[in-house]
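Human: I would love a firmer grasp of how sequence relates to backbone shape in proteins. Take your time, and here it is.
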Amino acid sequence: MHRNSNVLEISAHVRIPLDEIELAGVRAQSAGGQAVNKVSSAIHLRFDIGASSLPAVYKERLLRLSDQRISTEGVLIIKAQQHRTQERNRASALERLRELIRGVAVAPKKRIATRPTAGSRQRRLDAKTRRARTKILRRGYEE
């Protein structure tokens, strides 16, 4: 969003036109005195992931997230109300969208299956033997 004011810059190669992001002013839910019921300082950001111009890989990873802000229709909803002014809440909502998309830009590492070492297996078996012996000694003698 730095160089060109009508796009949200995610990275050097990925940009989202601001007309794909719906921003609406709503009333904040926090304490704020007399003006809280008159001023719509909070921002609702709605971003339709499926209809966006994001690369397919980004869309797929975003939709796979188990994030409660993403609806079943694939619409991301972010509510920003931390700041007192609508402009700062708008910037905050856009920054949170940018960070979420940057988070899915990095591919998750594949898990490499490993096997326990011979030493760890032996220690486990030794511990089991000691524990069993303790339990046997607790039983006492029956005659």
Notes: The chain has a mean pLDDT of 82.
